[in-house]
Structure formats: C-alpha cells, structure tokens
Amino acid sequence: MPQHTRCYRNGVLVDEAFGLEAVSEHLRDSGVVWVDLCPPDPVDLQKVADELGLHSLAVADAMSERQRPKFSRYDGHDFLTVYAVRLDVRSGELLTSEIAAFITDNALVTVRKEDAFPLDELLERWDSNADLTAYGVGALVHGLLDHVVDGHFDAVQGLDDQIEDLEDLLFDDRPHDSDVQRRSFELRKSLVHLRRVVLPMREVLNTLMRRDVGLVPHEMTPYFQDVYDHVLRATEWTESLRDLVATIVETNLTIQGNRLNIITKKVTSWAAIIAVPTAITGFYGQNLPYPGFAAESGFIASSALIVSLSGGLFIAFKRKDWL
After folding, report:
1. How far is CA 287 from CA 7, 282, 297, in A?
2. Are 248 and 180 in contact (CB under 8 A)?
3. Rounded to two decimals, what is the model's pTM?
4. Mean per-residue pLDDT for 3-15?
C-alpha cells in the first residue's frame, strides 16, 4: 500500500490517505491525484502503471538506482528524476535521496527508494500555497522542484560555511596540515557529488518549461522561472566553491613549503653559529705551540673570539630575519 495519497479538486484537498483502488475513482471525478510509493513495491507500482498507462522503460528507471537527473517524455506522460540532498555538517559528507516522478495530465506519482526525503516539509509547502494547487499537476511539480532546489541551495550554503572554517584553520598560527588536507578532500568530494546533482537540473528545468511540453500553465511560468534562477545560482555557487577548495589545497602546499624554508633557514643559521666555537676550539686544541698555547691568555683569547664571532653571526642573522 502507498504510504501517502492525496486528491485535489479545483485546488482544494478533498481526500487523502486512500488506497490505490480509489485512484481510478478520483481520476474519473476530475480530481488531481498524488501518490507516493516509499519504498516502491513492484506490485503496487505496476498497479499504478497499468492504471495510468506508464511506459515500461520509465517504470524500470523508477525501480533502478543512481539515475541521472533528467526529464523524459513518453506517450501520455512525462518522467522526472531528481535528487534531494542534505549535508552532514560534522563529516562534510553529502547525503542524497533519489526521487522519481511520473507526471500525467491529472496525476503525480512519486517513487522514493528511502524515507530520507522530508515529505512533511513538501506537504507543508503545498498546503501553504493552496492558491497554486488550482493549476493542477503543474503546481504540485513546482512545489516538489522548489523544495528540492532549496535543499540544493542549503547544501551549497553549508559547504560555503565549511570552507570558511577551513580557511580559518589554514591560516591558524599552529599548523593543521593533516586536518586541512583531510577536510579539503572531504569537501571537494562533496562538491563533485553535488555538481553531478545540480548541474543537470538546468536541462531538466529548461525542458520542463518548454511550451510544447504543456506542463507549466501560463500563470505558473514566473514560479518555475524563479526555481530556474535558483538552479543557476546553485550551479554557479558550486563551481566557484570547487575552484576555492582547489585554491585552498594549493595554498596549503605553498604554506608548507614556506614553513619548510623558514625552518631550513633557522637550522642553517644555528649550524653556522655552532660551527664558530667548533672551529676555534678545534684550532686551539691542536698539540702545536700556537700563540697562547697552554696558557691562560690563550683560553681568554679563544673564549673572547668565540663570543664575538657567534654574537656577530647571531645579530646578522636576526637582522635578516633568519632567526
């Protein structure tokens, strides 16, 4: 049995939570029917397919997973595949939920593989825009697409916030190289995944809004155009974030290289300073009668020479910012 069913007549919700056997009756009474199958039972889906004359290829696509977002036309109905997304803030992982939809003149059938999609929010959106439901199936499709695209926008916004946190971590005084690398990889993977979901939506909306399709009433055109604008913004935002993450990865490598150069300069400077007393003591340590050999004056001279040369090198390196 379907988990959710609704029937609208003249824009008014007249019945809900009815069985599949009542779909035909509502359709004969000029009602607009919405049926949701989650998870899709093959028997129930076939009943709906027989009732609405759905194409076997579209039914097979609705049952299979990992379909590309698309809008296809068949004789007597249209088929739509979209993905709702949600960002896990803690891990940076992008979670997706596939939604397939059969669209006829007076029926919308949604097929969901799992119950991760917030259906209550979709119903609330339809109920809060009850004046639009008078335009039939097109209004229901608009509510579905608007809700899905808003989810894309929220995910992009969440990824943007994550990248800002990553930038703060990148330029922290304490190095966080491993954290930056791991987080950059996670965010980049999520952005690639999001791009596969968001980018095809431009083609979906473009095809769906064509006049020869006849799905979008003239009164609903501005609403679908608004969804299309949101798709464009989400797409451009996703592309810019991908470039930004790539820049962060390159910047992190540059910072690591600069930090290594600084460490190398400091180690080299200290090695040069340490080499002075080593050279002088080695010189005076020879068993040869140099000036001050085996005398207190030689010890004082060598000590003074070590302090003066080492101090001079320290001051010179300090001025050059090598220490």
Report:
1. 109, 10, 17
2. yes
3. 0.78
4. 87
